User: Fold this.
Amino acid sequence: MAESERTNLEAHVDLCAERYRTLEKKLDSLEERMDKLEEHIIVIRTTLSASQSSGKDAATSATEKAQGTIITIGTAFGVALLTGLITAIVHFVMK
Assistant:
């Protein structure tokens, strides 16, 4: 906290407002990126489902299952990162 914030409530309020605007912009950007990632995952899953239903051989099916697992793990990792970011922001705001 800057010295001016300690002595001047208006300066503190203004700086906090700017911090919240910055956090909101970053969250909005993150939300947009997560939406795009989700769209890509849906397309990949749709493609994998379509290729599985077209009667591929067992080796190809195993590869597609592995790809599906990788996508699932990636999605879980992304959600965990997002949850951690939100938790950190809430903790920062509540301090």
Observations:
- DSSP finds three helices and no strands in the chain.
- The first helix runs from residue 3 to 7.
- The helical segments are 3-7, 9-53, 58-94.
